[in-house]
Amino acid sequence: MSNKKFIQIFIGLILATIIIHPLSKIIYIDKNLLNLDNKDIFFFSDSTMKTYSVCEENTLGIDDILRNNGLKIKNIESNAYSPIIYENYIKNIPNNSKVIIPINMRSFSEQWFDRPHFMFMDERMASAILALDFISLYKLYIESSQQNEQKYLKTNIIREGKNLGTISSINNKIKIDKDLYCLEKDFYKNSEYIEKLSIQYQYHYMYNLNLKHKMFSHLSKIISYAKDKNIDILFYITPINFEYGEKIVGKDFETLVSKNIDTLKEFLNSKKVNYLDLSQKVQGHNFNDHQYVCEHLDFVGREIVALNLLNYFNSK
Question: pTM of the entire structure?
């Protein structure tokens, strides 16, 4: 076999490895990307869109509430989605479309941003194939080969000069098996949970955000692409449980998280994009999944988000 033939076969095998595997993801994960109409409002989201507790009677998601109020919504969402993957998905959206993109402050933390599983490499590669963006596909393939779960778990988490431990040790410390939303409304007064929840609030939100964070690169690329294709984006900062965060951690929680939000808003203002700050729009008792310290909302909370989005579109 000649050297030229060997090189051709080698390159062909590499391309097959890069392309064939993620193609299977398109069929059942990215199906909404195969049927698009710029008359739709595309709602990228994570689990905050639909997650509800087992004790809730009304299980409508944010997208359902918007549809019930006359908006033509097509949602593209999954647990733990963030601008990391939206950067790829935006390239499959028709020109002259409207897009809603939530920004979750927890997605800047090591708990989310650095977690290999939350990089969604297969989905991003599938999206790059759909968009015929083979340069991105190659970069994603290289990036995926550098993911290391064990290295991630050994990362030390430092908050305000205090070492909370490695990610692995934190995961072992914070587990709460009880559904606090449904079964224990005054959980934040219970010493059994306070330390575990305090660690979670610090780990998830009390980092020091600056404009060098890599998430801003993903957001910049989304904004740049959207402007080139006349895609009208509405960002919104998702609600955070400031009320219980302050009760459990102290006043430093509100101070530091608000500072991080100001940094994000500084970035969005510099890009001259439309956004809503919903971070303090929902009361503490309207968050569910308290044992996980996240942004999941009960129906009242989901409705608050939906109505704020609805008011924005109705005012245009």
Answer: 0.89
